[in-house]
Each structure stands twice: as C-alpha cells, then as structure tokens.
Amino acid sequence: YKRITVKSLIEMKQNGEKISMLTAYDYTMAKIVDGAGVDVILVGDSASNVMAGHETTLPITLDQMIYHASSVIRAISRALVVVDLPFGSYQSDPKEALRSAIRIMKESGGHAVKLEGGKEIKESIKRILNAGIPVMGHLGLTPQSIYKFGTYTVRAKEEEEAKKLKEDALMLEKAGCFAIVLEKIPAKLAKEVAKSVSIPVIGIGAGNGVDGQVLVVHDMLGMTHEFHPRFLRRYMNLYEEMTTSISQYVDDVKSVNFPNDSEQY
Ligand code: KIV
Ligand code: NA
C-alpha cells in the first residue's frame, strides 16, 4: 500500500475523490479498518463514550488518548492516523497546547492532531503547526463544549452562528490546517464551506456536499444500539449478532456442548 499523507488528502480533494474516515481506539479494530481501505483513522475522544462509558468526551485524559493512539498505530500500514487533543489539554494556553500535541506525536506515533474550535484557539493551532505537526480543525457541534450548548442538536442553523463558522473555516485554512471536520450542521452550509476552502472538509451529519465522511466505527457497525441520530447509517447490527453468539456460548457451556471431542487435547 501507498501510505496516506496529509498531502494525499489535499490531492484527493483536488481530484474530486471523496475521503473515507472512521474512528478506531484499539489494535484489533484498527487492523480491520486499515485493511478495509479507510483513508483516515481518527483516534477520537469519543473513546470517552465508546470505550470508557462516560456520558461526555470531557473526562478522557491525554495519557488515555496516547494509550489508544499507540494501540492503533501498531495496527496500521496505510491509513493516516489523526488523534484528538482531549478536553483540558489545549484550551488554557498555546504552550500547553503544543506540549500536549508533542506528547501525542512522540509517545503514540500518531500522524496529526485534531482540536475543536475556531478563532478562540487560533494561537494554539499556529504554535502546533509551527512545530511541524499537522492539524485538523473541528467546527460545528464540538462535543467538548456540550455544557455550553446544552444539547447535541444541529448547530449553525441561525445566520450568526453560520457566519462565524464560515469565518472560522477560512481562518483554519489560512493558519495551515490540512483538513476540517464539520459536525452536525445543515448540509447547505457544509457544502458552502467545502467550496470556500481548498483543504478537505470531512463531514459527520453534514450532508454529501463535502469532501469526505467520518463515522464512529462502533456506531456504523451497530455495536452501540441506543444511539440513532438521522445521520448515522448502520451497516450491521452487531449488537444483536454478538448478543446471539454470546448467548449461544453460554448455553453451550451450561449444556456441556462446548468443548466437544475435537476441541480438547
Ligand atoms: O471523537 C470523535 O469521534 C470525533 C468524530 C465524531 C469527528 O471527533
Ligand atoms: Na472528537
């Protein structure tokens, strides 16, 4: 395989080839996702929900993100691996942001970092980029700010917020980000933003007028079954398939059907 780089993603946008991105937080899943040909693997702070069972993304630590990212890195041979800077690791000042990004790059071997926000974190983004670390932006619904928003509903439906989002996207491009994630905003706005910048815009709940799509892998495989937003397409119902298989195993153990004669020494 030819490895995907931040440059290949920009070329994909130029050639009109859509970019596929999924999350992964561990070795086994990352091996499958990479092997299946996904272009970008996101070690998202959604690990806080999916892996650790927290209600929000806020509790996950930088050390925990590094643990997840290093597991993913050991599995991949083609995908570009982007790692979320977790809440509290970059908001207080640009030096802290750079220190956190450096820890991710050195200790996990990740290829790039992602930060939530626009002009509020401009200096931090510039500082990280100056150190040679590629940065992916993230605008729209930014789950680290959930207590400010109050809900996980669609963002930027009003003109004022849409205007700020468009300005932030231009700022991220100008600062030197290699891509931007747009989460849960109107498709029309997302398309407009994707047209206004030359870097790839990757959407989640942002319609098909953007340059690529991202989903949480456990959601698209149907392992999580209590979460069903409109934007989520479920490709499997693994929750049911796994439950059926595991119940079968329990029955087999109870009935001494497992192990059979050929499954022992
Ligand atoms: O953490 C995450 O999974 C994300 C994606 C939803 C973009 O940030
Ligand atoms: Na995230």
Task: Quickly describe the structure.
The chain is of the alpha/beta class and 265 residues long.
Describe what this molecule looks like in 3D:
Helix content is 42%, strand content 14%. The protein has 265 residues and is α/β, with parallel strands linked by helices. The protein has one domain: TIM Barrel. It has an 8-stranded parallel beta barrel with strand order 1-2-3-4-5-6-7-8, surrounded by 7 helices. The mean pLDDT is 98. It binds 3-methyl-2-oxobutanoic acid and sodium ion.
Index terms:
single chain; 265 residues; alpha/beta; TIM Barrel; 8-stranded parallel β-barrel; 11 helices; 8 strands; globular; binds sodium ion; magnesium; transferase; cytoplasm; EC 2.1.2.11
- Radius of gyration over C-alpha positions, nearest whole angstrom: 20 Å
The total of helices stands at: 11
According to CATH, what is the topology? TIM Barrel
Strand order of the largest sheet: 1-2-3-4-5-6-7-8
Unreliable segments of 5+ consecutive residues: none
Total number of distinct structural domains: 1
Note the quaternary state here: single chain
Report the structural category.
alpha/beta
Helical residues, percent? 40-55%
CA-based shape: globular
The fourth-level CATH homologous superfamily is: Phosphoenolpyruvate-binding domains
Average pLDDT across residues?
98
Topology (elements, then pairings):
Blueprint (H helix, E strand, L loop, with lengths): L5 H9 L4 E5 L3 H9 L4 E4 L3 H4 L11 H12 L6 E5 L9 H15 L3 E3 L7 H9 L4 E6 L5 H4 L9 H17 L3 E5 L3 H10 L4 E4 L7 E4 L1 H4 L17 H17 L11
Helix pairs in contact: 2-4, 4-5, 5-6, 8-9
